[in-house]
Every structure is written in structure tokens, then in C-alpha cells.
Amino acid sequence: MQKKVKYIIKLDLIPQLKDREKEELKQVTDKFAFRTNDYYNSLINWDDPEDPIRRIVIPTTEELDVWGKLHASNESKYMKVHGLEHKYPDTALLLVTDVCGIYCRFCFRKRLFMNDNDEVARDVSEGLEYIRNHPEINNVLLTGGDPLVLATFKLEKTLKALAEIPHVRIVRIGSKMLAVNPFRVIDDPSLLELFEWFNTETGKKLYLMNHFNHPRELTKEARKAVELVQKTGTTLTNQTPILKGINDNEETLRELLEELSFMGVPPYYVFQCRPTAGNKTYSTKIEETIDLVESVRSKVSGLAARVRYVMSHETGKIEILGKGSDLIFFRYHRAADPENAGKFMIYKRNPDAHWFDDYKELVEEYKVETQEQFV
Which among 137, 126, 57, 136 has a CA at the least distance from the CA of 96? Predict the structure, then answer.
């Protein structure tokens, strides 16, 4: 099954695109970076201009529509040292690379792939020192960019350093690599040995947070990569935004969630697409998406149905619970401000809303009494 995957960063190198398309899309790639590979391109039905895999990776001129902002969740607000975000007390994010296997057109961190961005730390030593000095951090998420783009020996240095920090119990790797280039896993036994070492020798646990967006990404190669990672003792989960024209219909979303659960990769979150610049063409209306998610949840088994529909808002992870005839219900699943922990909120409905900030009429809120407030 060995394959040398070829990465592509120029539209001119994609023969399936017409010259006219390449010329039109140049203005898009001049603004937002482009990257794909020949394996992922092979999943595209090039005869279908609305092919969902094509929409994930091939630019469209709609990305130039003025909408949203590059820092949709204002992540830099929580940047404590170069390359490290600390938003929730027990969790730290290490931005370890500014490269991915492909650049998803709906990416909420597309700013990282721009020339003037300096959020990612090539040297994570400052971030590691911050983690050592904050014993409340018990889990660390390696993200970026895609950490599995890194050479295994570089990833090994970071994992070994985290393994030596007593209060770090979990390390999560956020990656779409099994979907876009499963040969990164299949053809690198040293990566699998590293994962197995971390799970069996350190007393800690490794999680691989996958990013399968569509059932067609679940190829025989992707399934093989999943099996190999599972054999290392690593726990796999999946998260995806709901994306217009990609997975925003019941048949597709149901198949995705079910197949993942059958593979032992239970769904974790489905996200509301962030209002990031360039993402208008991918964003769905919240109140329509509630119906989609709940309809699918009612038709799948418990493991697939446990998925949560959330927004990664500047103030925290907000779960979208449901709606009534006039009202919509939210709850802070994770809150950056302890005052918001577990807060339940009822707003007047807004059928045109794409994001939490589009709701203006707060009807009622209930604040949970946390243990700290009783101390």
C-alpha cells in the first residue's frame, strides 16, 4: 500500500482545472493559501462542479465575498507565550506548525498560512516551560497547522518533553492527516512506535482528534491508517464543522457519523462553521442546522448520537441545545470566564443567525453555582 504522495501548492499543476478557472481562482489563492495533494485530489469527481471533496480543497471565487474576520474567535487573546494558548484552566494548546496536509478552504486558522503571521512557534520550549509552571494543566492539545506534517523525530521531542511533566495526563493531537494522506501513518512505523511508547510507557494517554468531513474520505487507506493507530493504544475521535454543500444534508451526515462509530472513531463535536473571512459560502444557518443535527441523532446509535453541536466562540465553547417556537437555548460547555461556567441561556430566535453574536434578545439566563463560589 506504499505511496509517495505529491503535494501541490499551485493551481497550474492541477490538470483537471480549465485555464479559465485557474485564472479566475488566482485572485483567491493570492489572498488565501492553497495546498492539496494527488491522493486527496483522486477523491474528487471532477465532472461535478459541486463535488463535496472539491469544495473542501479547491478554491472558489465566493471566498472573496466580504464576510467575517480572520480572527473569528480571537484566539490571540489567550496566547500566553509564543505558540501557546491557555483558554480553559486544565487545557493548553501548542501551535506546533503552520502547515497542513491540505488547506481546507473553510479553515478558521487560515491566518496562520499568511506570510505576516507569527503565532506558531517553531521552537516550543517556551510553551513547554509555561506548561511546567502551571500544574492546573492536565491535558495538552498539539495543533496548528497539522502536527502530523512534522517529521516523527520532531514530534517525538515534544511528546517526550510532555511525558516528563507530571501533571500532564493527556496529550491530544488534532489532525486531518488520516483523511488527506493516510500514507503518513501507513508508511511510517516509527510514528506508530512513538504512539505506542507514549501509551504504554509513560502512564499517560494519547488521543488523535481526527477531522473527517465527508464519508468519501473514509477510503480503504484511511481505514487502514485508523486500524494501525488504534493498535498503538491511542484513542481516536472525530470532529467536523457542518459545511454547506459538503455535509449539511441528512444522508451525508448520518453516513459520516455512523461509519466513524463503526470504525471505532466516535464523533466528538460537530461545529458551527466559524464566521472567518472567506467562509461565507460554507456557513449554514444555526436554526436550520439544529434540525439537521437532531434529526440525524435520532436515527443513529448511541455512540454516534453522543456528538455535541457547538460553537467555538471567543468566550468559550457554547453548546446549541435546541429551539422552541420563539426561543433558542444555549449552554456554555466550556467557558473562558469561570463566571460563565455551565451558564444556560435563552434567546429570542433569529432564523438568519450564523453565529452566537447574531442573537441580540436575551430572555433569561441561569448561572450554575460552581464549587469555587461556595469556598
Answer: 126
Residues 171/161/97/126 CA torsion (nearest 10 deg) = 120
The one-character DSSP state at 358 is G
Q: How far apart are CA 312 and CA 270, in angstroms?
A: 11
- pLDDT, tens digit, for every residue of 115-174? 777 788 888 999 999 999 999 999 999 999 999 999 999 999 999 999 999 999 999 999
Q: Which three cell numbers stand for residue 131?
A: 506548561
In 3D, which of 185, 210, 234 has the Cα closest to residue 3?
185
pLDDT, tens digit, for every residue of 68-118? 999 999 999 999 999 999 999 999 999 999 999 999 999 999 999 987 777
What is the spatial distance between Cα 323 and Cα 327, in angstroms, rounded to a whole number?
6
* Rounded to 5°, angle at Cα 88 from 84 and 92: 30
Other C-beta atoms within 10 Å of 372: how many? 8
Please answer whether residues 263 and 226 qualify as being in contact, where contact means their C-beta atoms are separated by less than 8 angstroms.
yes
Instruction: Cell 488521543: give the residue.
Output: 207
Strand blocks (E) in the chain: 7-8, 36-37, 79-81, 84-88, 91-95, 139-143, 170-175, 205-210, 235-242, 267-272, 308-313, 316-323, 327-335, 344-348, 362-366
In the DSSP assignment, the letter for residue 276 is B
CA–CA dist 166, 168 (Å, integer): 6
Q: Pick the closest to residue 83 from 127, 125, 114 (CA basis).
A: 127
Q: DSSP letter at 64?
A: G
Q: Which alpha helices (H) appear in the chain, and where do they start and end?
A: 19-31, 38-41, 52-57, 125-132, 152-163, 177-180, 183-186, 189-201, 220-230, 250-262, 286-297, 302-305, 371-374
Phi, then psi, of 348 in degrees rounded to 5: -65, 140
- List pLDDT tens digits, range 350-359: 999 999 999 9
Question: What are the beta bridge partners of residue 322?
Answer: 329
